[in-house]
From TrEMBL:
Residues 10-134 form the VOC domain. This is Glyoxylase I family protein. Pfam families: Glyoxalase. Coiled coil: none annotated. InterPro entries: Glyas_Bleomycin-R_OHBP_Dase, Glyas_Fos-R_dOase_dom, VOC_core.
Length: 140
């Protein structure tokens, strides 16, 4: 019997092609804290990497094509409770800094303003990874 469809959709996975597969898998493990959930593939490796809450990044081993300048997605955003720790961990694992932790207040957001810290790092294939730490109110 199939499970019922959830009332609210949630992220299952985002797929990406990696042209630096081993470095990317290591970066996602060490820099982002992901774990390998599944491995498959015949001609090319495919790793399903769990973000820790059941949401995953599916990493396909690239080959034969030119490496794109900015990865295969615009960016993927990850929730965090500690923006600085997440950002620094990613840098320590070889990520490249794009934007250090920054406060944003999106006052025009509906139905109420959004307050958050965000930061960006770039992975080994040029993919952008954003960290988001939502907070209750304006920066102190």
């Amino acid at each position: 019997m199939m499970n019922p469809i959830p009332k609210e959709p949630s992220l299952h996975h985002v797929g990406m092609t990696s042209y630096h597969f081993d470095e990317t898998v290591k970066f996602y493990q060490e820099g982002l804290g992901f774990t390998i959930k599944h491995i498959w593939g015949r001609d090319q490796r495919v790793y399903m990497m769990d973000m820790g809450d059941g949401s995953c990044i599916e990493v396909f081993e690239g080959g034969g094509e030119d490496v794109p300048a900015s990865g295969r997605w615009l960016h993927v955003a990850l929730r965090t409770d500690d923006i600085h720790a997440s950002y620094n961990r990613a840098l320590d694992a070889g990520g490249k800094p794009k934007l250090a932790p920054t406060f944003a207040d999106i006052l025009e957001a509906q139905p109420k303003p959004v307050y958050m810290y965000f930061a960006y790092v770039v992975g080994f294939d040029g993919e952008e990874i954003e960290f988001i730490q939502e907070v209750e109110g304006p920066e102190a």
